[in-house]
């Protein structure tokens, strides 16, 4: 299942890493990431984070906004996140797991579902869901199916975890921008953000379910039952777990680099303001 990362439910799904000692080629993992939509999803991440950062900058009278926005492009590198995800998948999946997964994702139904999920992963698609939220949630039969899929992959819980991670990064970035000389400890925001988790979960769940209703609107019930059965298989569970673990590992690296860049730009801005 392609997992949606956008300004409404950003990056990104925390679950345990499952390991295997089986040997398989790097090209198999690369192919799997491509056909499962994971690589395309990761490549969308800088756009998502940039959109969220731009929204925050619009509320502040920050100088040198172009440089601050450019810092996202320079620091939030998909290649690093892809590498970490590749490593996590290589550790988690056996050769037989990969064979099972490739068979699904290269089938007509697998290709169709992945294409639909790719289309639903954009900020524009998220806005469409937001505009049609109540209409989508009124489709009770499909909402029940969405709940079934959500339970299979833990989508809401993971989306909230990623949202909290992103918020922590944003808080740290803005703090670095406002006080570039101080050492920012992200943990000072963690307790406050964690306290928001129950409320965010309640807000996120209906949006996740509405997104699923919209994404899979062209697929009949029989096809969706097949998908639910696939997602419940151990290989699919391991794929979801490892890909999200890898994404989070990569995101941690690139966001730390980004926050350093923000502090450097802010220090330069501060120096220019203090110059005679």
TrEMBL record:
Query: Locate the DUF2059 domain: which residues?
Result: 87-122
A Pfam family name for this chain?
DUF2059
Alphabetic keyword roster: Signal
Q: Which InterPro entries match?
A: DUF2059
Q: Where is the signal peptide?
A: 1-25
Per its record, how is this protein called by name? DUF2059 domain-containing protein
């Amino acid at each position: 299942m392609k997992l949606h990362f956008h300004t409404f439910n950003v990056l990104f799904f925390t679950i345990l890493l499952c390991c295997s000692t089986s040997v398989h080629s790097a090209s198999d993992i690369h192919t799997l990431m491509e056909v499962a939509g994971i690589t395309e999803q990761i490549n969308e991440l800088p756009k998502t984070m940039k959109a969220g950062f731009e929204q925050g900058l619009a509320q502040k009278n920050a100088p040198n906004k172009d440089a601050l926005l450019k810092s996202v492009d320079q620091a939030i590198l998909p290649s690093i996140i892809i590498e970490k995800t590749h490593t996590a998948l290589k550790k988690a999946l056996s050769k037989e797991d990969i064979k099972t997964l490739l068979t699904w994702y290269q089938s007509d139904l697998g290709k169709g579902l992945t294409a639909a999920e790719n289309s639903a992963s954009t900020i524009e698609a998220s806005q469409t869901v937001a505009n049609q939220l109540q209409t989508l949630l009124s489709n009770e039969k499909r909402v029940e199916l969405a709940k079934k899929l959500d339970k299979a992959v833990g989508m809401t819980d993971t989306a909230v975890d990623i949202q909290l991670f992103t918020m922590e990064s944003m808080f740290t970035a803005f703090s670095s921008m406002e006080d570039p000389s101080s050492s920012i400890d992200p943990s000072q925001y963690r307790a406050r953000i964690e306290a928001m988790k129950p409320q965010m979960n309640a807000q996120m769940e209906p949006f996740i379910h509405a997104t699923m209703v919209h994404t899979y609107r062209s697929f009949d019930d029989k096809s969706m039952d097949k998908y639910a059965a696939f997602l419940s298989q151990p290989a699919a569970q391991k794929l979801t777990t490892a890909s999200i673990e890898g994404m989070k590992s990569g995101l941690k690296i690139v966001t730390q680099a980004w926050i350093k860049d923000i502090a450097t730009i802010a220090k330069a801005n501060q120096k220019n303001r203090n110059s005679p």
